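Quick start: read one record
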Amino acid sequence: SHDEHEHDSKTLKSALTQAEQHRTSPISMAVVERGYRGAKQYVNAEVLLPSVPLKQDSATQRQKKRILCRRRAVIEPIIGYLKHDYRLSRNWLRGSEGDAINLLMAACTWNLRKWMAAVFLFEFKESIWAYIAIIKSGHPPKTSICFIERINAG
């Protein structure tokens, strides 16, 4: 969190400095969104923005840039879910410590939800596959309902 409203291009240097403190090797490339235009002059790392591929890039370079930008874009919906579902759009706790606590609790909840889904799928995988087979077989819904009742019964 920042004390004042700064443009994204001004925050990249501090974010990379903080990230490098937790790494053993320096960051050589930062894949960022278009809001970071103009940030290349503030950092020593290569800054990759999503843009139209250059004519001088080979097919391998174009594919690599495309994959990196897509990987970064995968995070955006997760941030949206955290803001909406885990009440991160507004922080009710005071100060930077409150920000950290709020984010930590949301991240713990997110990870716990993922673990619970994995355990559920592992525990009931035979039942789930059987239910999918029933749906694909075209039996009437009455059969599916009886099957669900048997699962719930134990």
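The chain has a mean pLDDT of 78.
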